[in-house]
């Protein structure tokens, strides 16, 4: 029996749904549900496929977070003693000639080579604690999305430019919690840098 620790939608259409899931404390799978044919008296034909894509370095905890941008880009945040100071970003390179429709994974072969990099956010919080994060599609022709990391006192926008192996901060927003008065503030204390 598998225990589902996290579930994140990757892609969806009227005939295909793909989700990423972390099961049994640290194995991440892509699960693909495909609806074939038209709905008739016997109902639609549905096929289910799953692919083990990577094993996390740390055991999954209830405070861990999984965010997925695509089957080849995902990130995890796993707190250490209840505090998280970095995000693990998993990028993939496909094996030549492999596709999700082949059965090579049953032979022990993966579909992608995943490599991890870390993003540490030290400059918007006194202790560097990350509260949450998400991927952000800029809407331009950039090959990579942005990653937005949220702390208790602000947010940082990270980017990975072509040819670089690390995610770098490209902007931040800082909030002063002592002077922030909520949505009714006429000029909230935000520092764009």
Residue share in helix: under 10%
Characterize the biggest β-sheet. Answer: 5 strands, antiparallel
Low-confidence stretches: 102-109, 188-193
Envelope shape: globular
Please state how the strands of the largest beta sheet are arranged side by side: 9-10-11-12-13
Question: Mean of the pLDDT scores?
Answer: 76
Rounded to the nearest angstrom, the radius of gyration is 20 Å
Tally of strands: 13
Structural class label: mainly beta
Percentage beta strand: over 45%
Continuous helix count: 0
- The helix/strand order is EEEEEEEEEEEEE
| Amino- and carboxy-terminal Cα gap | 49 Å
What order do the helices and strands come in, and which of them pair?
Layout: E1 4-12, E2 16-23, E3 27-36, E4 45-55, E5 65-70, E6 73-77, E7 86-94, E8 112-120, E9 132-136, E10 146-151, E11 154-159, E12 168-175, E13 190-192
Antiparallel strand pairs: 1-2, 2-3, 3-4, 5-6, 6-7, 7-8, 9-10, 10-11, 11-12, 12-13
């Amino acid at each position: 029996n598998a225990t589902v620790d996290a579930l994140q939608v990757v892609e969806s259409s009227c005939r295909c749904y793909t989700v990423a899931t972390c099961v049994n404390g640290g194995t991440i799978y892509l699960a693909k549900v495909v609806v074939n044919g038209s709905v008739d008296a016997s109902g639609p034909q549905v096929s289910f496929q799953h692919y083990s894509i990577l094993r996390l370095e740390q055991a999954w905890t209830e405070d861990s977070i999984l965010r997925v941008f695509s089957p080849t880009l995902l990130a995890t945040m796993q707190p250490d003693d209840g505090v998280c100071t970095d995000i693990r970003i998993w990028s993939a390179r496909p094996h030549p000639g492999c596709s999700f429709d082949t059965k090579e994974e049953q032979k022990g072969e993966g579909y992608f080579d995943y490599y991890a990099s870390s993003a540490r956010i030290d400059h918007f919080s006194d202790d560097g604690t990350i509260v949450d994060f998400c991927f952000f599609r800029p809407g331009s022709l950039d090959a990579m999305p942005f990653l937005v990391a949220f702390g208790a006192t602000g947010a940082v926008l990270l980017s990975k430019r072509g040819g670089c192996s690390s995610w770098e901060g490209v902007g931040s927003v800082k909030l002063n919690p002592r002077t922030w008065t909520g949505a009714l503030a006429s000029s909230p204390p935000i520092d764009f840098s």
